[in-house]
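Would you kindly consider the sequence and fold I have copied below?
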Amino acid sequence: MADTHSIMIVAESEPARWQCTFSNGTVESTADTTGDHGGGETGIRPHELLEAALATCLNMTVRMAAAERGAELDGVTTTVDLDRDCEEPTVAYAIDIVGVEEQIEDDLRAVADGCPVHETLSAELEFEERPSLAE
C-alpha cells in the first residue's frame, strides 16, 4: 500500500495581499480571496479548494470504476457546493454521467460515495499543529 503521508502541500505567501502559491512538489497553483475580503481574486479561494478536492475525487472514482467494469463513458461532470451559511455546513454534490445505461450509471453513483476524499470528509477529523512537517 502506498504511503499516503509522503506528499504534503506547502503554501507560501506572495507579495500580493493574501495571495499564496501552493504546491505538492510537482504542480503549483495560486490561492487568493475575494475582493470584499481584501484579496485580489487572482486564485482559487480556500473553500473552493476543498470543493475541488471532492469534485475531482468523485470524478476520478466514477471514471476508474467505469474502466474496471469495461464501460465506455462519454463524460463525467461533478459539481460540488459547500454551504457554510447554515448552522450545520452542508456539502451538496451532483454527478452527471453521460454515455452508459441506467443500471451501470446507478452502480457508478454508488461507488462514488466511497471516494477517498468523501470518506475523509465524512470522518471525524482531528487537527494537530506541529512545529514542522519537514523530514
